[in-house]
Amino acid sequence: MSTIVAISTATGVGGIGIIRMSGENVFEILEKFFKPKKPQAIENIKGYTIKYGNIIDKNNDIIDEVLVSYFKAPKSYTTENMCEINSHGGIMVINKILDICLENGAILAEPGEFTKRAFLNGRIDLVQAESVIDIINSKTDKEVRASEEQLRGKLSKNIKDIRKDILSILADIEASIDYPEYDIEETTNEKILRFLEIIDKKLETLEKSFYNGKILREGLATAIIGRPNSGKSSLLNLILNEERAIVTDIEGTTRDTIEEYISINGIALKLIDTAGIRNAKDEVEKIGVKKSKEIAERSDVVIAMFDVSKELNEEDFEILNIIKNKNAIIVLNKVDLNRKINIKEISEIKKPIIEMSIKNEIGKEKLYNEISDMFKFNDIGMDGEVIVTNNRHKFLIKSARKNIIFCKDTISKNMPLDIISSSIKQILEDLGEITGEFVTEDIINEIFSKFCLGK
Question: Could you tell me the pTM of the whole model?
């Protein structure tokens, strides 16, 4: 393979910049422009070694003083010869060193090409490769831990163990087909059905884990709704601990949604502050109110705000109607003021009620605890649970389960063993596509195109 190079650190000014190279000719290219303070033949340099020296251009002018890490095949990220040039973090310096690498025979890496080579060279499987980008994009501690477990091969092992069981029963079926004259234990339809039930239960557990995986990966869409001036924007500001939304005594200040992420007990919440729900006369505000209702409908959880200093009106009852069939928490705001609200009418829809004074910062922790309890945040990822976080994996697990149903149907119709064998092979392919044993080049390219340069 060609020798590839890319900048691995984020764009911008920093203390250190890293340029990564991988390929058979890495060290030959490197020695053209890297002059270590203590020169040494490449065959005498051990892997996992760092050398100090200077990067020079074609005129022998020093570009930067650097540290270069050496990784010798197969003990590297890609299993190829690799080096990482640690330079000063200025944009001009990093790009100049990149240009020098390209001038001396390296080619610019595609997004994710280093990890792609690690996969193609057999160091990691496709699940582990995808977990790399998940770690990079993680927003919370729990999401990082779930991705790291996949990088260590936890989900891969689970899938491979299931595939091993399928291969075992498939071998029995194939033996019965190919060598009927030998005294091989008869592979009966009942035995296959029992086996398929066991496999289906294992896959069902993985498929159901995707709900928790979705929470870890995407966070909970959390809509804050209520009448104008009920305290929606103030709640957003309190949770974020900054003046993110404009707060005034004028009704209808919020016309559009404001979205921000926050982590609660290791889970990301996408907080969405919405326009106050009321019978608006202004055309722009009408659009905002309509949007508020739509967001509340598709959110994972709704925080419904009520001002205790005001009596309930038809807009409040509309809000109660919106949340009656939703995961919702009712917040009674302004408890520091005289109460006029009818609590009995609110409690009839049987949703958790939190009393707050956002002005005095009272009740925030109670709200956090209620959200955590509602979704059992502290239980996610406990007890060694294998969590599916990737939509592609979920789709393929669902496809495998559909093929199990099809296989059962062929058995119920007393189809020949070779037909049953063919449908079981399709289950194998679905699961093999998750880990990469069965996967097309187009899928591989699509997966790695989502990676950043230098990874």
Answer: 0.76
How many helices (H) and strands (E) would you count in the chain? 15, 13
Cα 413 versus chain centre, distance: 42
41 torsion bin: left (phi>0), alpha (psi -120 to 50), beta (else): beta
Distance CA 227, CA 229 (A): 6
Cα separation, 115 vs 138, in Å, equals 18
Look at residue 254 and tell me whether its pLDDT is greater than 60.
no
Tokens 């404001």 map to which residue?
A: 258
Residue located via tokens 């020169």: 39
**Among the listed residues 354, 281, 276, 263, the one whose alpha carbon sits nearest the alpha carbon of residue 313:** 276
**Residue 454: its H or E element:** none
CA distance 151 to 130: 8
Q: Is 234 exposed, middle or buried (0-12, 13-18, 19+ CB in 10 A)?
A: buried
Q: Which H or E run includes 383?
A: none
Quick one: pLDDT at residue 280?
59
Residue 21's beta-bridge partner residues?
5, 83
Which of 76, 34, 74, 27 lies closest to 56, judged by CA? 34
Write the single-letter amino acid at 362: I
Tokens of 195: 């086996």
Backbone torsion region of residue 62, taken as left when φ is above 0, otherwise alpha when ψ lies between -120 and 50, otherwise beta: beta
Query: What's at 28, amino acid-wise?
Result: E
CA dist., res. 216 & res. 220, Å (int): 9
The torsion defined by the Cα of 22, 28, 34 and 37, in degrees rounded to 10, comes to 110
Q: Is 357 helix (H, G, I), strand (E, B) or coil?
A: strand
Report the C-alpha gap between 449 and 432 in whole angstroms. Answer: 21
Q: Which of 343, 323, 327 is nearest to 277 (CA)?
A: 323
Give me the torsion for CA of 341, 342, 347, 352, rounded to 10°: 20
Contact 110, 34 (CB under 8 A): no
Instruction: Calculate the CA dihedral of residues 67, 72, 73, 78 and round it to 10 degrees.
Output: -20
Q: H helices of 376-435, where?
A: 391-412, 417-435
Per residue in 292-333, pLDDT (tens digit) is 888 888 888 899 889 988 888 888 888 888 888 888 899 999
8 Å CB contact between 5 and 107: yes
Q: Which two tokens stand for residue 422?
A: 């063919």
Token pair of 13 as six digits: 């000014």
CA–CA separation, 267 vs 215, rounded Å?
7
**What does the alpha-carbon distance between residue 37 and residue 51 come to, in Å, rounded to a whole number?**
8
